[in-house]
Request: fold
Amino acid sequence: MADQLRRWKLTKGQVKHGSGLNNARRDTERWLAPIKPHLQHLAAASSAGTSLEANLKHITVTLAIWDAVWEVYLDPKWARQRLRLYGAQDRALEQFFNKVRLEEEVAELSMKRHGHAKQLVVFFGAATIGIG
Reply:
């Protein structure tokens, strides 16, 4: 029985790679590098406090960096990236299950020709099967 089971594994890392999320993260880091000091300065001047001074500091910093930050954020490459990533995870999953479906079709053909075939078993999460 064990020799007739084939194991397919789709990890979170494979989905991220297949959908382009890893490349998008690297692109985002590269695109934000020129304004990183501005963003850090803004984070340091958080308006989370309830004091008037904290709010005024946050407003002052926001106004000081506004043009530089939005010049980067309004670049069309951000919209192109969002469009590429829209549905990318679904496409990565679809590609994986197309491979599994193709394997299942080959197994059905093997069953017709030879009278035996590997079985398809799908597990989600950390599920496993004990064979022994």
Summary: The chain has a mean pLDDT of 81. The helical segments are 12-19, 21-32, 36-44, 52-73, 76-85, 88-114.
